[in-house]
Specification:
The chain contains 19 helices and 27 strands. With 722 residues, it is an alpha+beta fold. The longest helix is centred in the N-terminal third of the chain and has 28 residues.
Length: 722
C-alpha cells in the first residue's frame, strides 16, 4: 500500500470516518520549535491518530518517521491488537510536523524519532487510542441493533452479536461511532490475550508493497512545475569559509538558472540534477582556511592521547583510589589504548529536501527525523513564525542518526537556498553521496586510555580516560552538558556491569571544526568496544571463561540472563571452536535494551577476519513485533560489522580522504554472517531495538580474534586501508 502523507485537515475532512483522538500537551511544538526542550504544563487537546473509513480500512498516522526501522509496522500492530482489526485492513501514513499532537514523550514532548524510543513512547498511547475506537464501534453497533454492548464481539475486523447472528464490518458503523463521546479510560487487553503483540506471526509491513513496486515517495522523486534542483559547493575543509567565487563558467552551463552565495557555500540552481552538478563543477571558489581543521588524523589522535592522559572531568562517579590500586598491582596491571575513527552514517539516501516558500508561509517535504527542530530552524531562517512552516514527513532511505541533526543542518540549508533565490520558486536541495561522506556530521574521533588489574576473578582497579568531541555543545540539547561534557561522551563507560574495588572514568572534551553527530548507538558505539574488550582481556589474563567470568563480576539479573541465554543458543563450550575458529562474547545495555552477542570468527589467508555466525540474545521488555526485532538485530550486526572491519573517514590536512563507497568500504553480501536470535520473554514495558544490536558486535569479534592468538584490534577499523 502507498505510504501516503496526510495532513490533519485531510484526516478530519473524511466524511463518514471515525477519527479517534487522545491527548498530548498542545503547546509542546511551539515551545520546542523555539529551542526550549521541556514539556509544557497546559491543558491537553485531542488529536486524531486513527481513521476508520467507510471502506473498513484503518489508517494509522505515525508520529515517527519510517526509514526502515519499522515504526509503521509497530504502531499498526498496537492499534490492530486493541482494535481487534484484521491485518489486511491496516494502512499507515506519516503524521505532519506538529508537536502539539505528535510529540514524543521520551523527547520531552518534542516531535522526533531517535534513541530507539519509537515503540517505548507509543506503546500505551496507541493501545489506548485503539481501545477507545473499539469501544465506540461496539457502542454504535449495540445502539443500532438495540442490544447490550457487553454482548457484542469484535474479531479480525468483524463486529458480531452471537444471539441474533448479526455481523458487520467497521465501515458500517464508522460514521455513527464518530458521533459518540470518546471514552476516557478504555479497557485494555491482558497480555495473555494478545494475538499480535509479541506473537511470532508474519505481518506484511504497511510500507513494503510501495517500496517494492516503486510507488513509495521519497524526496528524490518529487517533481513539480517550476522546481529548481539545487546543489551547494562547500569548503573542502571543515571550518572553511567562502572568500569569493567566479560563477561565469557555471552560469554558461545550459540549464543553470542562478548561482548564489549561501552561508554554507555557493548554491547552484538548475532545471535538473545534471546541469546543477555540471554548474557546480565549473565554479571557481576561494576558500578561507583561517578557522579550518588543517591536521591529519594521526596528528589529531596524538593530541587526543595527550588530553586523555590528563583528563580532568569526572562524569558520574569515581570509587576508591584507582591509582593506588594500580600501583599495588605492579607488573600485573594491564594497560590498553583504543582509537576510534571518524565514521560517516552513509544511509542509502543522502540528505535531500523540497521547499515551497511564498515569503509568508513555507511547505517542506522530506524525511524529517526531528520535525520540531527542523520546523523551528526553518522558521528562524526564513523569518516567519514556526506555525507558518508546514513539514510533510516523507519516507527516508535510512538515517543511522544522520537526519537527527540538533542544529537542523539540512533544514537550515534548505531554507537558506530558498531564501537566496527568493519567494515563489520551489527548490529541491540534494546532497550527493560524495557531499555526504566528505562533508557529513561524523561519529566523533575518540580515544580511550584504559588501565586495570584483576586478581582471582576480582577486578581490583579499573581506569578509563576518554578524549572526544561533544556534539551537544552549543545546540538545543546543551542543557544536558555538565562541566563541558555531555552524557553521550561516556555512556556505557562511566557505569559498567562489572564490580571493581577502585574505579574511575574521566573525559577530556575536545574541540575542533569537524562537524559530528550521534551515530547509530551513539556513545555505546565506542564505549562498548573499550569496556567489553578490556574486561575480556582482564579475564583472559586471569584464566577465566569469558562468560562465566563476566557473570561472576555482575549483579544485574537481566545481563546475567542474556549471557546465559546467548550461551545456550550458541552451545557455548568455551571460546575455542573447531576448524581454526574462535568465539568472542560481548554484552551491552543501550537505550534500556540488553543485548548479548557471540561471534564465531576465523582469519582468512589475506589476514582479514571472517565472521561466520553471530548469536544474539535481546531483552527488549515486552516484544511488539518479533520479526522486526530480529530484522533490526540482523541489520545492526551487519552495519556494525562493516564499519568495524573496514570503515573510517581519515583526514589529510583536514580534507576527508574518502569520497564514496569505493573508498568508504561497506560490508558485502557474501561477508554477512548467519545470525540467530533469541528474544527474552518479558512483561516489562517495551524498550528500543533500532540501535542496540550494534554495540556488542565489534567487541565480540575482537575478543574472538584474541582467542585465535592475535592482538585484539586496538585501533579501528580492524582492516585499515581497505
Amino acid at each position: 500500500m502507498n505510504a501516503v502523507t496526510l495532513t490533519r485537515r485531510d484526516m478530519l475532512s473524511q466524511g463518514g470516518a471515525l477519527v479517534v483522538g487522545f491527548t498530548l500537551a498542545p503547546m509542546g511544538g511551539r515551545a520546542l520549535a523555539q529551542g526550549t526542550p521541556k514539556a509544557p504544563a497546559v491543558p491537553p487537546s485531542p488529536n486524531a491518530y486513527i481513521r476508520i473509513a467507510p471502506d473498513d480500512s484503518v489508517t494509522i498516522l505515525s508520529k515517527h518517521i519510517e526509514f526502515g526501522q519499522g515504526p509503521y509496522t509497530g504502531i499498526a500492530t498496537l492499534i490492530a491488537e486493541e482494535l481487534d482489526a484484521d491485518w489486511t485492513q491496516m494502512r499507515a501514513a506519516a503524521a505532519p510536523a506538529d508537536a502539539r499532537f505528535y510529540g514524543n514523550s521520551s523527547f520531552g514532548g518534542m516531535q522526533g524519532t531517535g534513541g530507539s524510543t519509537a515503540m517505548a513512547s507509543s506503546y500505551m498511547v496507541m493501545r489506548e487510542a485503539a481501545a477507545r475506537a473499539r469501544a465506540m464501534l461496539v457502542l454504535a453497533a449495540a445502539q443500532a441493533w438495540k442490544v447490550d454492548p457487553a454482548a457484542i464481539t469484535v474479531e479480525k475486523g468483524v463486529i458480531g452479536h452471537a444471539a441474533s447472528g448479526r455481523t458487520a464490518r467497521f465501515g458500517a458503523f464508522a460514521e455513527a461511532a464518530a458521533k459518540l463521546p470518546v471514552p476516557p479510560k478504555p479497557k485494555l487487553k491482558d497480555a495473555k490475550d494478545f494475538r499480535l503483540i509479541g506473537r511470532d506471526v508474519k505481518l506484511t509491513k504497511p510500507d513494503t508493497v510501495a517500496k517494492t513496486n516503486g510507488s513509495a515517495l521519497y524526496t528524490i522523486d518529487i517533481r513539480t512545475p517550476e522546481m529548481l534542483t539545487v546543489v551547494v559547493a562547500r569548503s573542502p575543509r571543515f571550518g572553511g569559509t567562502l572568500d569569493g567565487f567566479d560563477a561565469a563558467a557555471a552560469t554558461a552551463v545550459p540549464g543553470v538558472v542562478a548561482v548564489k552565495a549561501v552561508p554554507t557555500g555557493v548554491a547552484v540552481y538548475a532545471n535538473g540534477m545534471w546541469p546543477a552538478l555540471k554548474g557546480r563543477a565549473a565554479i571557481v571558489a576561494r576558500w578561507n582556511d583561517a578557522k579550518a581543521e588543517m591536521r591529519d588524523t594521526d596528528e589529531m589522535v596524538a593530541a587526543y592521547m595527550e588530553a586523555a592522559t590528563t583528563a580532568a572531568v569526572l562524569p558520574k562517579k569515581a570509587v576508591g583510589d584507582v591509582d593506588a590500586a594500580l600501583a599495588a598491582a605492579g607488573g600485573k596491571a594491564v594497560t590498553q589504548d583504543f582509537v576510534f575513527p571518524f565514521l560517516a552514517h552513509a544511509p542509502m539516501e543522502p540528505l535531500d529536501g523540497y521547499l515551497e516558500w511564498d515569503g509568508k508561509t513555507a511547505t517542506a517535504r522530506f524525511g524529517s527525523q526531528i520535525p520540531t527542530l527542523d520546523q523551528g530552524a526553518m522558521a528562524k531562517t526564513l523569518g516567519i513564525p514556526p506555525e507558518q512552516v508546514k513539514i510533510e514527513v516523507l519516507l527516508a532511505g535510512g538515517s543511522f542518526g544522520r537526519r537527527a541533526t540538533p542544529s537542523a543542518h539540512l533544514a537550515v540549508e534548505l531554507a537558506e537556498v530558498a531564501k537566496a533565490i527568493g519567494p515563489g520558486k520551489p527548490v529541491k536541495l540534494v546532497w550527493t553521496r560524495e557531499d555526504d561522506i566528505m562533508g557529513g556530521h561524523y561519529r566523533p574521533l575518540v580515544v580511550h586510555r584504559m588501565a586495570g588489574a584483576i586478581e582471582n576473578g576480582r577486578i581490583t582497579a579499573w581506569k578509563s580516560h576518554i578524549a572526544t568531541q561533544s556534539f551537544m555543545a552549543g545546540g538545543p540539547f546543551a542543557g544536558s552538558m555538565k562541566d563541558g561534557a555531555d552524557p553521550t561522551m561516556t555512556e556505557g563507560a562511566s557505569e559498567i556491569f562489572y564490580k571493581a574495588d577502585a574505579f574511575r572514568c574521566a573525559v577530556a572534551p575536545m574541540a575542533n571544526p569537524v562537524s559530528t553527530l550521534w551515530w547509530r548507538s551513539v556513545g555505546h558505539t565506542h564505549t562498548a568496544y573499550a569496556v567489553e574488550c578490556f574486561v575480556d582481556r582482564l579475564l583472559q589474563a586471569d584464566g577465566r571463561d569469558p562468560i562465566e567470568g563476566r557473570i561472576a563480576l555482575m549483579s544485574d539479573p537481566r545481563a546475567i540472563a542474556c549471557l546465559r541465554a546467548v550461551a545456550k543458543l550458541a552451545g557455548w563450550q568455551g571460546p575455542m571452536a573447531a576448524d581454526g575458529r574462535a568465539r568472542g562474547v560481548a554484552i551491552v545495555e543501550s537505550f534500556k535494551t540488553m543485548v548479548a552477542e557471540i561471534a564465531e570468527v576465523s582469519i582468512g589467508a589475506d589476514g582479514v577476519p571472517r565472521v561466520h555466525k553471530v548469536w544474539a540474545a535481546a531483552d527488549v521488555g515486552q516484544a511488539i513485533n518479533p520479526d522486526v526485532i530480529r530484522a533490526q538485530l540482523e541489520g545492526g550486526i551487519g552495519y556494525a560489522l562493516g564499519h568495524a572491519l573496514f570503515a573510517e573517514v581519515p583526514l589529510a590536512k583536514g580534507v576527508p580522504a574518502v569520497r564514496n563507497f569505493d573508498q568508504y568500504r561497506s560490508l558485502r553480501i557474501n561477508e554477512m554472517p548467519e545470525v540467530e536470535v533469541v528474544i527474552m520473554p518479558s512483561s516489562a514495558p517495551p524498550t528500543g531495538i533500532g540501535e542496540p544490536g550494534v554495540p556488542p558486535l565489534a567487541p565480540a569479534v575482537a575478543n574472538a580474534i584474541a582467542r585465535l592468538g592475535r592482538e585484539r584490534p586496538a585501533r579501528l577499523p580492524m582492516v585499515r586501508g581497505a
